[in-house]
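[Meeting: bench + compute handoff]

Bench side (C.D.) handed over the final construct sequence. Compute side (W.E.) agreed to return the predicted structure before the next meeting so the bench team could plan truncations. Sequence as handed over:
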Amino acid sequence: MDSNRKTAIIVGVLFIIATVATLLSGLFFTSIYDPDYLTAVSANENQVVIAVLFMLTASASIVGIPITLFPILKKHSESLALGYVVTRIFEALFFVVSAIGLLVILSLSQEFVNAAAPVASYFETSGALLLGVFDWSGILLDIPFALSAVMLNYVYYSSKLIPRWLSGWGFIGGALMLVGGVVGMFGVTEAIYLAALIGIQEMVLAGWLIIKGFNSSAILS
């Protein structure tokens, strides 16, 4: 098995890990949206910690993808390959900020529960600010993610490293996701559905890379 084939498999697996870890993390931090989250989060400590571990796993996978792909992408466009690395690092950083936010909310909840006579207004204000950081991090990470998808699939399309129907699908999905990310900053929650196209494409892409790999004739020596 040559190095390019190995790279394709590794990247495909990392795409799957990043997506699955992200989805699983969402199943474990639901207590922060409980109306009585100041006590609910503390009562669900293990679930919150598991959510953080999944988020950190997703972050590591997200960074690993462009680093692994860089040697191949730079042969076709070094500037876009570098841009892909930078945008995915920014995406991962927002994930890390969200994870830290969850841990701080957990600490605040534990302090609230353990306090003999908690000052509700103080904890509620602090909790609201931390939830705001968590929510905004989740919204803002969509933008570098979308930009990275556009750049990656543009290189794929122009180089024919993968079938053009697949890279074209990803380019359109990334563009829609970018629109959704910007609109989401203005409180349009329905914009999240614009992520569906690129989300499905990434899983199809991952499967293609694992099973088929890159088009060997399109890889420059």
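W.E. noted at the follow-up: The chain has a mean pLDDT of 89. C.D. will use this when planning the next construct.
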